[in-house]
Structure formats: C-alpha cells, structure tokens
Amino acid sequence: MPEELHKIRFSADEIAEAATAYYAKLGYAIPDVAIVGVDLAADPKRMVTLRFGPTPDGNELHPVELSQKIMFDALLSYCRSNDIPVARNARKRAIVEHEALVVVVDHGWTGEI
Predict the structure, then answer these.
(1) pLDDT tens-digit profile of 7-18?
(2) Interacting residues of 68 by C-beta distance below 8 A, sequence separation 6+
(3) 49, 19 in Cβ contact below 8 A?
(4) DSSP character at residue 83
C-alpha cells in the first residue's frame, strides 16, 4: 500500500535560526556570538549541537546540545513563523537523514492506487 509522507529538510543556518529563536521564546539565553557549526546526531538526547565562535573578549564557549524534542518544537515554530505549511492533523517527527535534519509529516493515508 502506498503511504503519503512529506519531508521538510532544514539547512544548518535554518537549524541555528530555529534553535535560537525558540530558546529566546522560552526565555533561555543563547550566547550572542556567531554559531560556527551545527552538528547532527541520531541520539534523541543531543540531536543538534551548536558550536559557537569566541566571545569578543576571546573566551571559548561550550557547545549547546539540543534534544530531539526541543528541535522538533523549534522547527515547527520556525515553520509557523516562516509560513511553511505543516498539516496539523498529521503525525510528525524530527529525524537525522543523510546528514540533514528533517521533519517527516505522515498524513496517515494508505490506500490502493
């Protein structure tokens, strides 16, 4: 039986923007320095790791690890803020696929052609 799935793939810049905007919305501080790297892992406890450049006074900052749940919520918020349509009644999940972060939207439709 065929299934209907949609995938929304996010670039490193979009992941960083989604994470920082979501953290700001929650009232958490993200360092106000350049994000120099976005690392992805299939581990639900640390799906995304943001690496920061040095502070203006030359201090090195520790990376920030974000869970699958946080990134899922951040990416859905990013989609809403950027008018990217995501079906409300569909099942959704965030996964790492082919070295990219993807939101999979499963419409639950199965049927014969």
Answers:
(1) 999 999 999 999
(2) 44, 45, 47, 94
(3) no
(4) T
Q: Which two tokens stand for residue 22?
A: 């979501």
What are 15's two structure tokens?
A: 């992941």
How far is 99 from 39, CA to CA, in rounded Å?
9
Structure tokens at 73: 């919520």
* Residue 61 contacts residue 52 (beta carbons within 8 Å): yes
Q: What is the β-pairing status of strands 64-66 and 91-97?
A: unpaired
Cα–Cα distance, 98 to 65 (Å, whole number)? 20
Give the predicted TM-score (pTM) of the model: 0.85
Q: How far apart are the first and last CA of the chain?
A: 8
Domain ranges (residues) in the chain: 11-86
- DSSP state, residue 12: H
Contacts of 88 (CB under 8 A, 6+ apart): none
* Angstrom distance (rounded) from CA 87 to CA 76: 11
Per-residue pLDDT band for 80 (boundaries 50, 70, 90) equals very high
